[in-house]
Write a structure and sequence with these properties.
Blueprint: H1 2-44, H2 49-66, E1 74-80, E2 91-101, E3 114-125
Helix pairs in contact: 1-2
Length: 130
């Protein structure tokens, strides 16, 4: 009985940790896809570029927060295919990257302890009639 209990704990703890880590990565992938999509939609709905960038970053932070990720783990990049990002027909691409931390690890000053680095991008076309 003692041997079985010892082996069960010894084998089950890594399996449970692996399952929790995979769940964190899956949640992070949902978060970056949703954040990139919403940020691109918010960006093209604005009138000025500086306000659009700020609104897109707020949308990313809100979407990542809904999935339980903190803002300092993410980066946002906005790219346009034209010089004037908000001209009609311009394509705006938003790329969101996220470092998913290992579960149950302190996040103090150990930046190398991440489970995965995820990124997603979404492209929206600026409409003709705003």
């Amino acid at each position: 009985m003692v041997e079985f209990t010892f082996l069960a704990v010894l084998l089950m703890v890594p399996v449970v940790y692996f399952v929790v880590t995979v769940g964190q990565i899956q949640g992070g992938s949902f978060a970056v896809v949703g954040a990139a999509d919403q940020a691109a939609k918010v960006f093209v709905a604005r009138d000025d570029v500086s306000g659009a960038r700020a609104a897109a970053e707020r949308a990313v932070l809100l979407a990542l927060g809904d999935y339980g990720h903190v803002p300092d783990q993410a980066t946002v990049e906005v790219a346009c295919d034209r010089a004037d990002c908000l001209s009609a027909g311009s394509k705006v691409t938003v790329t969101v990257s996220l470092d998913v931390p290992l579960p149950l690890m302190p996040s103090g000053n150990s930046p190398g302890l991440t489970a995965a680095r995820l990124s997603a991008s979404a492209t929206q076309v600026v409409g003709r009639f705003l």
